[in-house]
Write a structure and sequence with these properties.
Aldehyde Oxidoreductase, domain 4; 13 strands; alpha+beta; single chain
Length: 462
């Protein structure tokens, strides 16, 4: 592991790579060692995926080698070795980055593989490929499976407050860089309080609003902070029922919240706006009932998960290679993803699309090159290649939902899943396309020039 000139984030990247490598498979014998060194290069710090693509690349390439050596179909060798749904929780026997055991909590790995194969048209692929080769075109298909450790601790918290105006405020310590936290947290809180997400204002990463938190990393915000928001909103809902029961002369268990109102079940005419209940919860005269446990409709809750929860999925793609130039064209890209309960499908798909695009850059275009003295050679975008929208196909996404038992929402993280298996899937597809040239891919990232060199090398040795 080349840490570069400094080590700003410890050994997280190689640790995550080593603990991700076994993937969704039965691996009864596994031993991993890594050597970390300092060099006079750019420092390395976690980046979306943070070691997971490296571990998945190694395992998936090993499975491809085993499939070829045993003359087994590449998808079939994966299917035979997948952990089955009735084996969860599954103890991998390793220690994760949070110092907790790597224990897969839930999933249906065979179902994800079968769905990805169906979506990409795997059963008919060989006939299609042969037709392309007859026409002088070199197309290949790749498929890669993965798991993603998400939702690690130590904790996150959230405070939820209902104002006399009826507006709801939620504050949490996690930071936001565009993941859609405001929308997702507002949805969670709104569901508990019977309001719309537009009625909920969310503040993140502001110590003036909420002073406790660990941060946004490791695909954890929806899992840890989202659960804290749910717990706080549920506590506010129960307090609302207690206060409203006094006002509406009913029992707390008869009180319902919906459409911004608080009412007696079965008697919608006996109702109050949520804001009026919030105002009544802060009495200016008379004695406060002991069961209110303080003024206002407000609660703070913290969630500390016992360990991380594991998302999983399968990517499949079809690529075309021009052996004369080494250029790659992406024809199709399919993703089947399981992050437990999906809170907001649009946000999850956006995370997946962005991750796949980023992963494709790292698989085929982007590479920082140094000379023998450690001086960077790729210092402009003329040298450091980036994929554009014109290089990418429309992504096809299939959601599977296997809720986790480790939090009450049943959610798993989704922020990094899109990038994780891309390098492995692309490597397999390129190798499949260039099978007539006996090219073997053992590295990432590739590039047009590198693919051309590999083809030229096999031609010289033929």
């Amino acid at each position: 592991y080349d840490a570069g000139a400094y080590c700003p984030y410890g050994l997280i990247v190689p640790i995550v790579a080593g603990t991700t490598l076994p993937g969704p498979y039965h691996v009864p014998n596994y031993h991993c060692e890594f050597t970390a060194v300092f060099t006079n290069k750019t420092p390395v710090s976690p980046y979306r995926g943070a070691g997971r693509p490296h571990g998945v690349f190694v395992m998936e390439r090993l499975l491809d080698r085993a499939a070829d050596g045993l003359e087994i179909d590449r998808a079939e060798i994966r299917r035979r070795n997948l952990i089955q749904p009735d084996e969860f929780p599954y103890d991998v026997g390793l220690i994760y980055q949070d110092n907790a055991p790597v224990q897969y909590d839930s999933g249906d790995y065979p179902r994800c593989l079968a769905r990805a194969a169906e979506m990409i048209g795997y059963a008919d692929w060989r006939a299609q490929q042969e037709a392309y080769r007859t026409a002088g075109r070199y197309l290949g298909l790749g498929v890669a499976c993965y798991v993603e450790g998400t939702g690690i601790g130590p904790y996150e918290g959230c405070r939820v407050t209902v104002e006399p105006s009826g507006q709801v405020f939620a504050a949490t310590g996690v930071g936001t860089q565009g993941q859609g936290h405001m929308t997702a947290f507002a949805q969670i809180v709104a569901d508990h309080l019977g309001v719309t997400p537009r009625d909920v204002t969310v503040r993140t990463g502001d110590t003036a609003a909420f002073g406790w938190g660990t941060g946004t990393f490791a695909s954890r915000a929806a899992v840890v902070a989202g659960t804290a928001a749910s717990m706080a909103a549920a506590a506010v809902r129960e307090k609302t029922r207690i206060v409203a029961a006094t006002l509406l002369e009913a029992r707390p268990d008869e009180i319902e919240l919906a459409d911004g109102k608080v009412f007696v079940r079965g008697v919608p005419s006996r109702a109050l706006p949520l804001g009026e209940v919030a105002a009544a919860a802060n009495p200016l005269r008379f004695a406060m009932p002991r069961e209110w446990e303080g003024p206002g409709l407000e609660a703070t809750r913290f969630f500390a998960p016992p360990r991380g929860t594991f998302s999983n999925g399968v990517h499949a793609c079809i690529v075309e290679i021009d052996p004369e130039t080494g250029m790659l064209s992406l024809h199709r890209y399919v993703i089947v993803h399981d992050c437990g309960r999906v809170l907001n499908p649009l946000i999850v798909e956006g995370q997946i699309h962005g991750g796949v695009a980023q992963g494709l850059g790292g698989a085929f275009w982007e590479k920082v090159v140094y000379d023998a003295q450690g001086q960077p050679l790729t210092t402009t975008f003329m040298d450091y290649l980036l994929p554009t929208a014109a290089d990418l196909p429309s992504f096809e996404v299939g959601h599977e939902e296997t809720p986790t038992p480790l939090n009450p929402l049943g959610v798993k993280g989704a922020g990094e899943a899109g990038v994780i298996p891309v390098g492995a899937a692309i490597a397999q597809a390129v190798e499949d396309a260039l099978r007539p040239f006996r090219v073997h891919i053992t590295e990432m990232p590739l590039s047009p020039s590198r693919v051309w060199e590999l083809v030229a090398g096999t031609r010289r040795s033929a």
